[in-house]
Design goal:
globular, 2 domains, two-stranded antiparallel sheet, 664 residues, alpha/beta, 12 strands, Rossmann fold, 6-stranded mixed β-sheet
């Protein structure tokens, strides 16, 4: 079926691994020209699907396949090097990571060792976001997806083989259906939830199934001769993926098809002596591809942690360190562990692997739950700790994006004093609103929903579960049952939904993510007019029944304020302050500022201007006198939000005077 060397080793597949890991490494270290190097992971998925299908189907056909032995073989291959990586970075982190970062490292290692990091990271920032370079174990997402595939795929093939009595054509057909279903799902979910599409197995299984399809094509239709032009085209598809795609490309569907189909053709071609794959350098990288993949990413994170990502010298140092550690891992961990475990019985080797895995997990779990202060300078820990200085009830009280009604938490006394409505930016200031109330008997009513701008009728393109429209509609109805003297404060990150994500290179050139009535292909004047008019109309509809206050947009910072400052204190002579020019702030927020002014003019919405501690006329700052005012890059910390209290107290006092005047 396939040409192999005497040991059954395929040089071409090993060479493909080399190109895949090289592309991934160059992409992660920001080497120009490899903007699509992340497609190397897709190559790995196809290879895994091919090899696993070979092992499982061959074992089933010969009546010797055992689930336990299959899982154990995968564990012997994957666990040892991963466990050593985890322990080394836990030990290294002790000496230089501030407490929040060290706890986060422990948390991420726990997810990695449980092979669920892809599920966890899917709920956080996207793979291509700036925050990705703050996640030490981000790269283990692919191990999680692959391990989940290893768990389920043998069951799928075993059940299919039983049903169709080992008929290869029938099993192949079932595999093609799996491929089509997963690919179709990827096409749908990539629109609604790009992070889920990128990280989770249902939208990735088609890539591994593609490898299985290659196995069956070769088994059912041998020999297969791939003409040289097609072979060259396959390489072109692979390198086009590495060189032409970038973080703005929809992934994995549809554009991962280039890398996947290219890899399928190259495996089918079975050319063992091709220079691209058989060269000794390619073979060296291929044999060490797993260890290189494991070790390179933490060094890439360290590069960003140091703020040295623009230094070619430091990039070279970190790449070299990755390769050295990978070589040590390959020679001292991967190979020896596999050979030693291979000499043990299945039962003994299984016990050893699971025991070591648990022993590695224990320190990660302990670090996650404990502070272990005193490892770095107290002033560094104090700055870093601002990441946790946020509303402790945010998860309890903030409705999810699929939840169409407010949770309805209250902060304070027994009598309603103010309604706060908005997204997570509203949630970040709500306790300062509570502290600004004129009486301890009053409370704040929390009507906040994650990622939901206060705009009536808003919907998200392709997201069938986005419940913001229902949330705002319910608020518009329910607030009419609340006494009209109770004011409402609107706080939203409007620019994120109307202008586009700040993290994007060209937010104005992207197709709008949100819409009211009409889908727009670009952010035209008509689009901005529709969105901002809806913003104004919504505020005015609330203002028909009660006093409405609206906070000016909270300035968005280019990076996490506490993390950037604390890390600069570790590695630099001067503290790196995070800021954005006031001109840039006003330019990004121009349509929002104008809409707020229109609401003030049309229906007497009171606008709360930003405190001078935030913006001084030239720049908007992320800290005040050396203490971060944000817990990340765009949410105010409890400390940062406290500067709003004088303005809020003045509003409550003005409202009291107005009520007394009207009553008199």
């Amino acid at each position: 079926m396939f040409q192999l060397d005497k040991s059954g080793f395929r040089q071409d597949i090993n060479g493909l691994r080399a190109w895949a890991v090289i592309a991934v490494v160059l992409f992660h270290f920001g080497i120009p020209g490899f903007s699509g190097g992340f497609a190397g992971v897709d190559v790995f998925f196809v290879i895994s699907g091919f090899l696993m299908t070979d092992i499982i189907v061959s074992g089933l056909g010969q009546g010797r396949f055992r689930f336990g032995l299959f899982y154990l073989a995968r564990a012997k291959r994957i666990f040892p090097a991963l466990i050593v990586l985890a322990l080394v970075w836990l030990a290294a982190g002790w000496f230089f990571l501030p407490t929040p970062d060290y706890q986060e490292l422990g948390s991420q290692i726990g997810y990695a060792l449980g092979f669920i990091s892809n599920i966890e990271f899917a709920s956080e920032a996207g793979y291509f976001d700036t925050a990705a370079h703050e996640k030490w174990m981000l790269h283990t997402w692919s191990l999680g997806a692959e391990w989940q595939f290893y768990m389920l795929f043998p069951i799928f093939l075993w059940v299919t083989a039983k049903i169709f009595k080992q008929n290869l054509l029938a099993i192949f057909t079932a595999l093609c259906i799996l491929f089509a279903l997963s690919l179709g799902y990827a096409f749908v979910v990539v629109q609604a939830s790009p992070s889920d599409a990128f990280y989770l197995l249902p939208s990735r299984a088609w890539e591994m199934a593609a490898g299985g399809i290659v196995f069956f094509l070769a088994r059912l239709h041998r020999p297969i001769n791939i003409p040289l032009p097609i072979y060259a085209l396959a390489w072109a598809m692979l390198f086009a993926s590495f060189l032409m795609f970038d973080a703005q490309t929809m992934w994995p569907a549809p554009f991962a098809l280039f890398a996947v189909v290219g890899t399928m053709l190259l495996i089918l071609a079975n050319r063992q002596n091709d220079l691209f794959t058989a060269h000794p350098v390619a073979q060296w990288f291929g044999l060490r591809s797993y260890s290189i993949y494991l070790w390179h990413w933490p060094f890439a994170v360290l590069l960003y942690f140091m703020g040295a990502q623009q230094s070619w010298l430091w990039i070279a140092v970190m790449v070299a360190a990755s390769l050295v550690c990978a070589e040590v891992s390959y020679r001292s961990v991967e190979n020896p562990a596999r050979k030693w475990l291979g000499r043990l019985s299945a039962g003994k080797s299984g016990i050893v692997v699971l025991t070591v895995l648990v022993l590695a997990y224990v320190p990660a779990a302990i670090i996650k739950e404990n502070h272990f202060g005193g490892r770095v300078a107290p002033e560094i820990d104090a700055v870093a700790a601002e990441v946790d200085n946020r509303n402790p009830r945010r998860e309890e009280c903030q409705a999810s994006r699929s939840q169409g009604e407010p949770v309805g938490c209250t902060y304070g006394g027994d009598t309603l004093g103010v309604i706060v409505i908005g997204d997570s930016h509203a949630g970040s200031v709500i306790r300062s609103v509570e502290r600004s109330l004129p009486s301890s008997n009053l409370h704040v009513l929390d009507w906040t929903m994650s990622g939901c701008p206060v705009i009536r009728g808003i919907d998200e393109v392709g997201n069938l579960t986005f419940a913001c429209e229902a949330f705002i509609e319910r608020a518009l109805n329910e607030h009419q049952n609340i006494p009209s003297h109770v004011p409402m404060l609107i706080v939203s990150r409007f620019a994120q939904s109307i202008v586009g994500p700040m993290e994007s290179e060209n937010p104005l050139q992207e197709a709008p993510r949100y819409y009211i009535d009409e889908l727009y292909e670009r952010k035209s004047d008509a689009y901005f007019d529709e969105m901002t008019s809806a913003l104004v109309d919504t505020a005015c509809q609330f203002a028909q029944y009660r006093p409405v206050w609206m906070l000016r947009p909270i300035p968005e910072m280019p990076s996490s304020v506490p993390q950037t400052m604390s890390r600069s204190m570790l590695f630099k002579d001067n503290v790196e302050r995070v800021s954005v020019s006031q001109q840039a702030y006003e330019s990004r927020q121009a349509v929002i500022l104008d809409a707020q002014d229109r609401a003030a003019a049309q229906c007497d919405v009171k606008i709360i201007e930003l405190p001078e501690e935030y913006c001084d006329g030239e720049r908007c700052w992320g800290d005040y006198q050396g203490r971060p005012m944000y817990y990340d890059d765009d949410h105010l910390s409890e400390f940062g939000a406290s500067f709003l209290q004088p303005k809020l107290r003045n509003l409550f006092e003005s409202l009291r005077i107005e009520e007394e005047t009207n009553a008199g």
